[in-house]
Design goal:
Immunoglobulin-like, 52 strands
Length: 851
């Protein structure tokens, strides 16, 4: 006798002996139903824990084997772990793990999940996209009978993982990680895989292949776990049930799915009957032990195999019209495993019926129905409807049948015609029967309706009002691209004025995000990191001038990071031109020009800087390069300054502590109006012959200018000289002594006014003509910033200037009052860049006396 038949027969014999000993009615259990037509309710926590356990990765060397059916997400025990270095890296830079997925061959690994994100990988095993790209590799092994050992592990760890570690009949993943605190802020992520599980034998084709068919899953469990022999399986019923499972059902949202599918796992330490009940729940079916064989039935409408009448009874029938109140319900709340919710148990939309509620006094009586092997909301709702409708077919009948009806089996549908009950061909399903001593059979029947198996795209969309909208905790949205503003600040340690960059960005939509900021000069790969902190503003102090890359990324409370967002900005620091002088005004007071202006906004002008002034004889159109310095520069923090009063235009520029001037001057013209009237005493005009003494100056074209620095006999190619006056570049300074001075004949009081008309010119207009370093050039593409200048100086004596006079020291002359007999004048020309010269076409001194 086959092993399962022997076990069932022994159990039946014990029951019969016990019943006889108790003096009960003799009965012989020919049909045994494994699992009720309506599966027994199980505790919800057990189902939830079981479903969650499928995807948990545990470090456990000894554990029960797991069978994976259909398509489902699984993890498993970590049976091997190793850290090592590679390519000269740290000894713990890499980590290898071996995670067992199933204790048998599986059909495929469809997806790899690390933590809460999918990790696509290529044929070489490298994860190709997402946060783990470049930091994770995976090599799946399906558990085939001829499976070879993992080549990467053997090559690296031959002493620990050898070619003999083949794992035949064991499906596992070898996963390798490369350490990075940014990628793995919480340590090793949970490793899971979406797999196509065990290959199943199909008696319809005689082949073995992967399938989700619930009937084939149940058959496999009986043969592999219970050890049932092929002869103990009624494959005719298996084939019929498998055909029902494969029927196509149209979905409300479009598309189709199989009528019944089973996706789940079974651990070897579970009771086989509990696992079978869960599999049967996925197809609203029943497992029957009859005639020494298992029959597998899937839920579906069946035509009656016989019609029973009063002539088929051995006695009166006993009818129970309604279920006890404790067993009654009118709403079913299905719980199933939802793939889109991380393969966790959730509630499907409940199945309710207003008519049934009215029959029960308007009270909703709820039942929770769990479907551990169901992964479709639509399928869960179909199964729940079957369960509800089957429960509402409440009539139970004890039918004492004649011996000929021994041929009826559990799950058969029969029709009953009985005038007393008003039944004409009313359908009932056989749920059990008992052989009586008189040779008859007592049938246990339950009301049946073909409509309870019907379904026409009636399902409700999964959870139309989700319980939560929480985002993926491992997906962090990038903040906005940082904006960079430069400013200066004064240090407290006496170091003076320095530059800082102020970064701002729009916040990441990720809740409770903090931010990491770093920066580097574009000429270097070394980054400077700022401490992680909340807020969307950072100050970076003491930046040297240069071009920088600034980056920012968001970090959530779990340590997951967004991608970096970056921008590039140039920091000028103290080399940035200061702002233009604003609010320039002038008041003529007693021969002086009192200039006033707004407080300068730049810190490095106010501290260590100055305000420079120039004067042009033009009343309009005056330019900085066409003017000459007048008076001394004012401190950068000043807002007023007195200068000699002269007709023309005054120009002012701010110069910072680094010597960088503002790009454009502020200007104000004046007629030099005075209260006193003056009459001309004498005028000295040097243009255009400039016949005085030259020292570093020349005037070959009627223009006074600085001379060149080369000697003629030092010029290698005279034909290549474009400007003989500036050959070799312009001299840094030169002095021109006026050809004539002034002799008043006696000591007089007079007002002197110097008038200079000048223009700055570029004498080396080609870059390769210049020899000094580029960072010393005043102006690259014009003359507006070129620092060339001219001033008039005067010395005086009370002696006869034609004799042997005693002269005073030279002093600057813009406009001044003197008391002397003789006056001597000179012009001093300067330039800070040998590429620029200053040309004077007017050089005059007027002497006047008050009327």
């Amino acid at each position: 006798m086959p092993p399962v038949a022997a076990a069932v027969a022994a159990a039946a014999a014990k029951i019969s002996v016990a019943q006889l000993a108790a003096g009960l009615v003799v009965s012989f259990a020919v049909n045994t139903v494994v699992g009720a037509l309506t599966p027994k309710p199980k505790s919800r926590p057990a189902f939830v824990d079981s479903a969650r356990g499928r995807t948990e990765m545990v470090r456990q060397p000894i554990t029960s084997r797991r069978t994976v059916y259909g398509r489902t997400m699984v993890s498993g025990p970590v049976v091997y772990m190793e850290t090592y270095g590679q390519g000269g890296g740290p000894a713990d830079e890499y980590l290898s793990l071996v995670v067992v997925l199933a204790g048998h061959e599986i059909d495929a690994v469809e997806e790899l999940w690390l933590g809460e994100v999918q990790a696509p990988y290529d044929a070489s095993g490298a994860v190709t996209s997402g946060r783990y790209a470049g930091y994770a590799w995976v090599w799946p092994h399906l558990g085939a009978a001829d499976q070879a050992a993992d080549a990467e592990l053997v090559a690296r760890s031959a002493s620990r993982w050898t070619a003999a570690h083949r794992g035949r009949g064991i499906a596992y993943l070898h996963v390798k990680f490369r350490y990075s605190p940014d990628v793995f802020p919480q340590g090793v992520p949970k490793i899971r895989a979406l797999v196509r599980g065990k290959k199943l034998y199909d008696p319809r084709t005689g082949s073995t292949a992967w399938s989700r068919n619930a009937a084939l899953v149940c058959r496999d469990h009986l043969t592999s776990k219970l050890g049932a022999a092929a002869a103990e399986i009624d494959d005719a019923t298996v084939q019929a049930a498998a055909n029902v499972c494969d029927e196509t059902v149209t979905l409300a949202a479009g598309g189709t799915e199989p009528r019944y599918a089973a996706d789940g796992t079974v651990d070897d330490d579970r009771d086989w009957r509990e696992a079978v009940e869960e599999m049967l729940s996925a197809m609203a079916g029943t497992l029957v032990w009859t005639g020494g064989r298992f029959e597998i039935h899937a839920g579906a409408a069946s035509a009656p195999v016989a019609t029973l009448t009063e002539a088929d009874r051995r006695g009166p029938i006993v009818t129970t019209p309604r279920l006890p109140r404790a067993e009654l319900y009118n709403a079913v709340h299905p719980v199933y495993v939802e793939p889109s919710r991380d393969w966790q148990p959730i509630d499907a939309p409940p199945i309710t019926n207003a008519t049934y509620e009215a029959q029960d006094g308007g009270q909703r009586i709820r039942k929770n129905a769990e479907y551990p092997f169901t992964t479709s909301s639509a399928a869960a709702q179909r199964l729940a409807k079957i369960e509800l409708e089957r429960a509402r077919q409440q009539i139970r009948v004890a039918f004492p049948a004649m011996p000929k009806w021994l041929r009826l089996k559990v799950w058969d549908v029969v029709a009953i015609t009985d005038a007393r009950h008003g039944w004409v061909g009313k359908e009932f399903r056989v749920t059990g029967w008992t052989l009586r001593p008189d040779g008859g059979v007592d049938l246990a029947l339950r009301e049946e309706a073909a409509s309870m198996w019907a379904w026409s795209a009636e399902e409700t969309a999964i959870d139309p009002a989700p319980d939560t909208g929480l985002p993926d905790p491992w997906t962090v949205v990038e903040p906005g691209v940082p904006q960079v503003a430069e400013s200066l600040y004064q240090t407290r340690d006496g170091a003076g004025v320095k530059a800082k960059a102020v970064l701002t960005w729009t916040a990441s939509p990720t809740a409770s995000a903090r931010y990491e900021v770093d920066y580097r000069p574009t000429s270097s790969s070394d980054r400077t990191e700022l401490p992680r902190a909340p807020g969307t503003r950072r100050e970076i102090l003491d930046l040297a001038p240069g071009t920088y890359e600034f980056r920012v990324r968001a970090v959530n409370p779990l340590g997951a990071t967004s991608a970096w967002v970056a921008t590039t900005a140039e920091i000028y620091g103290l080399l940035a031109p200061p702002a233009q002088v604003t609010g320039l005004g002038l008041a003529a007071i007693g021969g002086m020009a009192l200039l006033s202006w707004d407080r300068h906004p730049d810190l490095d002008v106010r501290i260590g800087g100055r305000i420079r002034f120039r004067h042009s004889p033009l009343m309009s159109g005056a330019s900085w390069q066409g003017a000459t310095t007048i008076g001394e520069a004012a401190p950068g923090g000043a807002t007023q300054w007195a200068l000699p009063l002269k007709a023309g235009t005054y120009l002012a520029k701010a110069v910072d502590s680094s010597g960088v001037a503002s790009t454009a001057p502020a200007t104000i013209p004046t007629k030099a109006a005075a209260v006193l009237a003056f009459a001309n005493l004498s005028t000295v005009a040097e243009a255009s012959t400039f016949a005085g003494a030259h020292a570093g100056t020349a005037a070959p074209d009627g223009l006074l200018k600085l001379a060149g620095t080369d000697l003629v006999d030092a010029i290698a190619d005279v034909d290549a000289v474009a400007d003989w006056d500036s050959a070799g570049g312009v001299a840094a300074s030169g002095t021109y002594d006026f050809a004539a001075g002034i002799d008043f004949g006696s000591v007089k009081r007079a007002r002197l006014t110097a008038t200079v008309s000048a223009i700055v010119v570029n004498v080396l207009d080609r870059i390769d003509d210049r020899s000094n370093p580029i960072d010393q050039w005043d102006d690259l593409d014009g003359t507006a910033g070129a620092d060339a200048d001219a001033r008039v100086e005067v010395r005086e004596t009370d002696d006869d200037p034609a004799g042997s006079p005693t002269w005073s020291a030279w002093r600057r002359l813009d406009s001044a009052e003197v008391e002397a007999r003789g006056l001597d004048f000179r012009a001093v020309l300067t330039t800070a860049d040998p590429a620029y010269n200053i040309h004077l076409d007017t050089l005059t001194v007027d002497a006047e006396e008050a009327l």
